[in-house]
Write a structure and sequence with these properties.
- This protein has four helices and nine strands.
- By secondary structure, it is of the alpha/beta class.
- A seven-stranded mixed sheet has the order 5-2-1-6-7-9-8. The protein has a two-stranded parallel ribbon with strand order 3-4.
- β6, α1 and β7 form a beta-alpha-beta unit.
- The longest helix has 14 residues.
Length: 207
């Protein structure tokens, strides 16, 4: 198995009953309920489906050659703030990669709180957000400032991909603790750009 993102995998998670992939965009994870506001709803995994251990299969890039955005394929349409539309059962794992920043700070904190309430004790959340401080440092150093501005603010082409909240290590960890996740740890960054990748565990038991 070609494991590009093994740090996102939890031992035995394939046997967990409900796993959600929120704001999935062009990444369709097998074994997860893939949800986004837009995209083509599918009945079976698309040809580009991938696994949690190779999250960016076919979508690798760098700051000088950002890969083209792939059309989303979803199992269900859903606002990430309202995951009750996806399942009524306790959730074992949520993966949200580079999507939370598209919500305003109040809405993002509200979403985290709802995710915490929906998860079983010991459930796992993996969330990835742009690292605002490191991005600002990149801009200040004049190290590809155009990319840094885009990474900080999101795409400003009218497509709705604006970044409406900005995160540092302190603010994302604090928001997760406030949402009921008792243990948080940082994972190796899976992106080619500055980002914070956090694994958080719902209070009440081990994952």
């Amino acid at each position: 198995m070609n494991e590009q993102t093994p740090q996102l995998y939890d031992e035995g998670e394939e046997h967990w009953r409900v796993r959600l992939h929120l704001g999935c965009g062009g990444v369709y994870l097998t074994g997860y309920i893939n949800a986004d506001l837009h995209g083509t709803q599918v009945d079976s995994p698309p040809f580009h489906a991938t696994t949690i251990t190779d999250y960016y299969k076919g979508l690798h890039g760098d700051a000088g050659a950002i890969p083209a955005r792939r059309d989303a394929c979803v199992d269900a349409y859903a606002d990430m703030r309202h995951i009750d539309t996806l399942t009524t059962r306790p959730v074992s794992k949520i993966v949200c990669i580079q999507a939370l920043e598209h919500l305003g700070k109040f809405d993002a904190i509200e979403a985290l709180g709802r995710w915490g309430k929906a998860m079983r004790p010991g459930g796992v959340l993996i969330v990835s957000v742009p690292d605002s401080l490191r991005t600002l440092d990149t801009i200040a150093r004049d190290d590809n400032p155009d990319f840094g501005v885009r990474h900080l603010l999101g795409k400003r082409d009218g497509g709705g991909y604006y970044h409406r909240s900005h995160w540092t290590r302190d603010t994302i960890h604090t928001a997760l603790w406030d949402a009921g996740f008792g243990a948080t740890s940082e994972l190796v960054n899976i992106h080619f750009y500055p980002a914070i990748v956090v694994r958080a565990v719902k209070q009440g038991g081990g994952a």
